[in-house]
Amino acid sequence: ERRVTADIAHELRTPVTGLLTAAELLPPGRPTELVRDRAQAMRTLVEDVLEVARLDSASERAELQELPLGEFVSRRIGLLDPDVTVQVVHESWVSTDPRRLERILGNLLGNAAKHGSTPVEVTVEGRVVRVRDHGPGFP
User: Fold this and answer.
1) For a tag on the chain, would you pick the N or C end, based on fewer CB atoms within 10 A?
2) Of the candidates 4, 71, 89, 16, which has an alpha carbon nearest to the alpha carbon of residue 47?
3) What is the pLDDT of residues 38-91, one digit of tens each?
């Protein structure tokens, strides 16, 4: 099942890239923005599935680094979405894979933007990172 999922995701990568390229050739306007947005969402989904497949198969190893979590989160969030406020209550050094942590932060911010309401706030307290939006929550 995992192998099939990885194969499907890999096969989808090329047509999705083609969609993104074709979308760039469309005339400006709202329909074009929608096409680009959906094609980018498909690309992100395919990349996420491939990442999970690599992790499940243990074919990719984490590249761990020691880093100050609050500083890392503040810098990355600032690049991903400057409108999000970050508060570092207590700094802590952690051993993590920066690339994967950045991807996780991006997914959390994306979910907050898509399913929540502003403002989005990120708090780092020691080794804990909290992402809070002001949406209705889950029923």
Assistant:
1) C
2) 16
3) 888 888 888 877 777 777 766 667 789 999 999 999 999 998 888 899 999 999
Q: Is 74 exposed, middle or buried (0-12, 13-18, 19+ CB in 10 A)?
A: middle
Q: Is residue 26 classed as helix, strand or coil in its secondary structure?
A: coil
Residue 137 belongs to a domain: no
pLDDT at 132 (0 to 100): 93
Q: Same domain for 42 and 95? A: no
Q: Which amino acid is at 3?
A: R
The answer to whether residues 19 and 76 belong to one domain is no
Q: Give this prediction's pTM.
A: 0.64
Q: Are the C-beta atoms of residues 77 and 122 closer than 8 Å to each other? A: yes
What is the pLDDT, as a whole number, of residue 1? 65
The closest alpha carbon to 35, from 10, 16, 11, belongs to 16
